[in-house]
């Protein structure tokens, strides 16, 4: 069995490798058996599982299925401390640093910590930055936090720097699931010039072109959820395999 901490080391030491993560919302996926072939077709590097609001208890089964069928790391992307699954490869231990809600800065983390310790689940400390995408999103409502305005690049960069200085191991720039407007790639480029930790980007990426723009701007990982849920076909997924390296 591969040591889970080795997987974590490889994730946080990423540099210019143009990785693709597939975010699977357990409530929304109704094509479970097809996931392995679809993931290999797109060259998916990581699975993320979780969501702002889960309606059923399917997450453990989903993680179990993925671990059995696919040799791709499964990372927990928890919406709250209720979503801890012991068998994942690591937890993205998200700190919502764009917001000022103490529950998502430290409260949920305190509730989750004893369970994480008990199960010895590797953690990756993530500075999670919500950026305005034009409309309210589930994550802004559920977290009761205000996203950073998309044109306030100086605030976004300052927030990213603060996350890095606090010791966070990566930054996740989030426009929100299904966002109409993705984050502006110029923001990613600006952060890339300033920060030294890996940068993940997600929210509204629905074409290889948009994915490519983020990679060209310096994103280390692009996260896609909704687009893969909407078009779960091999032919669609294959378009995401070419990362332009
Ligand atoms: C949401 O960034 C992820 O947390 C993915 O967003 O569902 O829009 O791809 P999409």
Keywords:
single chain, 245 residues, alpha/beta, TIM Barrel, 8 strands, binds SN-glycerol-1-phosphate
Q: What fold name stands as the CATH topology? A: TIM Barrel
Major sheet: 8 strands, parallel, barrel
Count of DSSP helices? Answer: 10
Mean residue pLDDT: 94
N-to-C CA distance: 31 Å
- Which CATH class is shown? Alpha Beta
Computed over alpha carbons, the radius of gyration is 17 Å
- Tell me the domain tally: 1
Structural class: alpha/beta
In the CATH hierarchy, what is the superfamily? FMN-linked oxidoreductases
Fraction in beta strands: 15-25%
Number of strands: 8
Spans of at least 5 consecutive residues whose pLDDT stays below 50 are none
What's the arrangement of strands in the largest beta sheet? 1-2-3-4-5-6-7-8
């Amino acid at each position: 069995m591969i040591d889970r901490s080795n997987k974590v080391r490889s994730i946080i030491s990423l540099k210019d490798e143009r990785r693709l993560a597939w975010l699977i919302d357990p409530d929304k996926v109704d094509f479970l058996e097809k996931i392995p072939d679809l993931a290999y077709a797109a060259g998916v590097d990581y699975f993320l599982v979780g969501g702002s609001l889960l309606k059923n208890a399917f997450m453990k089964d989903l993680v179990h299925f993925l671990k059995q069928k696919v040799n791709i790391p499964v990372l927990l992307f928890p919406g709250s401390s209720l979503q801890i699954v012991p068998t994942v490869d690591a937890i993205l231990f998200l700190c919502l640093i764009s917001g000022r809600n103490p529950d998502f800065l430290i409260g949920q983390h305190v509730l989750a910590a004893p369970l994480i310790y008990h199960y010895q689940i590797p953690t990756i400390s993530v500075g999670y930055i919500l950026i305005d995408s034009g409309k309210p999103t589930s994550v802004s409502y559920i977290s009761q936090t205000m996203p950073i305005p998309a044109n306030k690049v100086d605030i976004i960069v300052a927030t990213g720097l603060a996350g890095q200085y606090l010791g966070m191991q990566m930054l996740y720039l989030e426009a929100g699931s299904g966002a109409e407007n993705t984050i502006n790639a110029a923001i990613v480029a600006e952060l890339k010039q300033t920060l030294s930790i890996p940068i993940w980007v997600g929210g509204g990426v629905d074409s290889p072109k948009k994915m490519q723009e983020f990679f060209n701007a310096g994103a280390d990982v692009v996260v896609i959820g909704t687009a893969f849920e909407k078009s779960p076909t091999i032919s669609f997924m294959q378009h995401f395999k070419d990362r332009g390296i």
